[in-house]
Every structure is written in C-alpha cells, then in structure tokens.
UniProtKB/TrEMBL annotation:
Entry cofactors: FAD; [2Fe-2S] cluster
Coiled-coil intervals: none
Top-level taxon in the UniProt lineage: Bacteria
Name of the molecule in the record: 2Fe-2S iron-sulfur cluster binding domain-containing protein
Native source organism of the sequence: Parasulfuritortus cantonensis
Length: 409
C-alpha cells in the first residue's frame, strides 16, 4: 500500500466518523423533538393542539380591602435591598388557603402621592390560616427618567411592625398544582424568586417525592434571596435539583459553595442540564430574561399548555390573542389630549408609550387600578379579568381596541 493510498484511507475513516457523529447528534435531537411533542399530545407532523381557554376566575376570598397588621419584617439579602413582611388579619379570622404563586394587592398612603398607590406583591411562602408573607425589593432610581419605585421604597422606609395595611384578597393566574405528580421546572430571575419559592415549598410539602428543578439567576451573592432556606431544602430533598447561577460573581463568592454556574439562566443552560421528561415550566423574572427565554422554550418544543409564566415590574408578556383586532386603530386619551395608533399590546402599554400617565398595579386584570372610563368605542380582552369592571369602563392592562376608541385618560 502506497503512502497516498494510506492517506486516502485515513481521510475516508475520518469522514465516516464525522458522518456517524452527525447521525447520532441528529438522532438525539429527533428523540428530544418527539419527547417534547408528546408533551402536547401531538404526533410528528401534526399541529400542537391549542390549550382550552381558562375559565372565568372565582370570586375573591373577601370583598374589597381588609386591614392587615405587620407582625414581622426581615431582611432577606446581604445587600439589604430585599425585605419580607409578615401580615396577620386585624380581625383575627382565619385566612383562606390559596394556591402558591398568587399575589396580594395593597393600597398604600405614600408620602407626596396625590392619591393612594395600588401595588401588587407575590406571596413569598405558602399561605397559612394565621398570616401571609410578601417580599419586596427596593427599586432605586435609574437615571433622571426612571425615579425610584415609590411603593417599594415606602415599604422599606416607612412600613414597620405594628403598621396596618389595606389588602385585597389573593389573586392572579400564575399558580402551581401541588397535587400533580409530574416533574416541574422553576426558573427565577432576581426578585422573581418570590412566587417560585412559595411554589417550591408547597410542592415539596404536598409531594415530597416530586421531582423539582429550580434554576435561579442573580448577579452575585449579595443579591441572592432565600439562599440559606434554598440550601436547606436541597439538603433535605434529594429530588430537588438546585441550580444557582451568578452572572457576575463577587470576589468573595465561591463556586460550588455559593453558586453552581457562572453566567445567566438561559435556554442553553436548561438544555444542558435537563433530562428529557414531560416537564411543566414555571418562569418569573425581569423583562429581558422573559423576552429571551420564553420564545426559546417554545422553539425548543415546550407546549404552550406546559409553559406558565409571570413578569414583574413594568414588564408585560401577553400571549397571542385569537381574533385580535387589526393594527392601526386610533385611540384618543381625552384628558391628556393625546392620540395614538394602536399596533399591538395592551392599552396600558400604549398609554405609557404615548406619555399618558395612568395608574396601574398588577397589570393582570386583578386589582382594578387601571380602570378607565370609555367615552366612545369598544374594547376586547385577551383574558377574562378577575376584577369586576364597572359598566362603561375597561381595564387598560388587558384591553385592546375593538373599534376606534376615546378614553377618559
């Protein structure tokens, strides 16, 4: 055999190895595709069935505002920017149970505000008959165009043990079925850990054997919330897979002790760590994380019925609405003297983008803070509001224009 023939045989062998490697890779991706398609009950080549629309929400556990007393407040992070508030009803009556993931709506008398502010904060531990808990992150100023959060700073600077706050009953659509046996993935960014920590505790209490994966991303150890509690849960439950990610670890943060991965929580991390199982995904975090991760999960093949999420702060991530009105409808905000053409998103987003000041709270159709009178025209809703809307009004956070529209804003 000549040297030239030997070289050709070597090259041929390398080429065959490359073909085998590519074939194995394709086969593995095909198996992943089939597994994820099976989550939605669809066969290859068939469309994923649309989830059934959610039924109208149940009536709230109590009407209107109920007084709660702050019985404890506790710092939850090393930076001192996150604080929990334990709330007990002033009337002493037992509190109703509610699914983990719900939030409370507060009416706050904030110094310097012309009227009370309405804000919503997630329950950060499972509800008990004696108390609820919320955990609030201080929102600092971010330049002249983004002043500090009035409500969060009010909580940190003014709300003390013994103070009484006006609270609406737990509400929201983001919730975990604790009785279900299937595996679940929780993905949190920053203060988005609050509802997911409640879900985690409730899920493990209801079914200690349930497989749960938690991916939690923060900047560094100073910003981590519930760190000791999460470590203790992972120590007690072998089926809890805890993946803490620091995007910018501090000099005193130690890999393997304080965090598991350096970097952000993204689709590459999930695909690398997760086995192929019919997971339900629950995601909560800042807008940037949600905007990148949710489409990536859908592209990976996670069925819409298995993808549950909630954005916090001003972020709004609405699901597509079947039969949505055509873009270009004119909306006039009468008191502000502003006219804008609606293209997509909610009327609340349109108002904010047009410089129209509108009060808002939950941004989910639960608190009623953005209720606005309709002077002319009609609106449509992307989902049934929990709040009972007054006749002739709409909730801007869920509403889209059905026709040309004039609003009292």
């Amino acid at each position: 055999m000549t040297a030239q023939e030997l070289l050709l045989l070597i090259l041929l062998g390398l080429f065959v190895q490359l073909l085998v490697y590519a074939g194995v890779g394709f086969y593995r991706h095909w198996l992943a595709y089939l597994a994820l398609r099976q989550q939605a009950g669809a066969r290859p080549g068939e469309p994923v069935p649309e989830p059934e629309p959610a039924p109208p929400a149940a009536a709230p556990a109590w009407p209107g505002w109920r007084p709660f007393r702050v019985v404890e407040r506790r710092a939850e992070d090393r930076a001192g920017q996150v604080c929990s508030f334990l709330l007990a009803p002033v009337d002493g009556q037992p509190l109703p149970a509610c699914p983990p993931g719900r939030f409370l709506t507060f009416r706050l008398d904030v110094e310097g505000a012309a009227k009370p502010l309405v804000r919503c904060y997630s329950l950060s531990e499972p509800a008990t008959p004696a108390h609820y808990r919320v955990t609030v992150k201080r929102v600092p100023a971010a330049g002249p165009e983004r002043p500090p959060g009035r409500a969060s700073n009010h909580f940190h600077d003014r709300v003390r043990v013994g103070d009484v706050l006006a609270v609406q009953a737990p509400s929201g659509h983001f919730q975990l079925d604790c009785a279900a046996p299937g595996p679940v993935v929780l993905v949190a960014g920053g203060i988005g850990i609050t509802p997911l920590y409640s879900m985690l505790c409730a899920a493990l209490a209801a079914r200690p054997e349930r497989e749960v994966w938690l991916f939690y991303g923060v900047r560094d150890g100073r910003e981590m919330v519930f760190g000791a509690a999460l470590a203790a849960l992972a120590e007690r439950h072998a089926n809890l897979h805890l993946h803490v990610c620091f995007s910018r670890p501090g000099t005193d943060d130690v890999a393997g002790r304080d965090y598991r991965h350096a970097g952000r929580v993204d689709i590459a991390r999930l695909r690398l760590e997760l086995p192929l199982k019919p997971f339900h995904f629950y995601v909560c975090g800042p807008g940037a994380m949600m905007a990148s991760l949710l489409p990536a999960l859908a592209e990976w093949g996670v069925a819409e019925a298995r993808l549950h999420y909630e954005a916090f702060g001003p972020a709004s991530l609405a699901r597509p609405v079947a039969g949505a009105p055509a873009a270009g409808l004119g909306v006039r905000f009468e008191r502000s003297g502003v006219r804008a053409d609606w293209q997509a998103g909610s009327l609340l987003e349109l108002a904010e983008a047009s410089g129209v000041k509108v009060e808002s709270g939950c941004r989910l159709g639960c608190c009623g803070a953005c209720q606005t009178a309709i002077l002319a025209g009609e609106v449509a809703y992307e989902q049934h509001p929990e709040y009972e809307v007054e006749a002739g009004s709409c909730l801007l956070c869920l509403a889209r224009p059905r026709t040309e529209l004039v609003l009292d804003a």
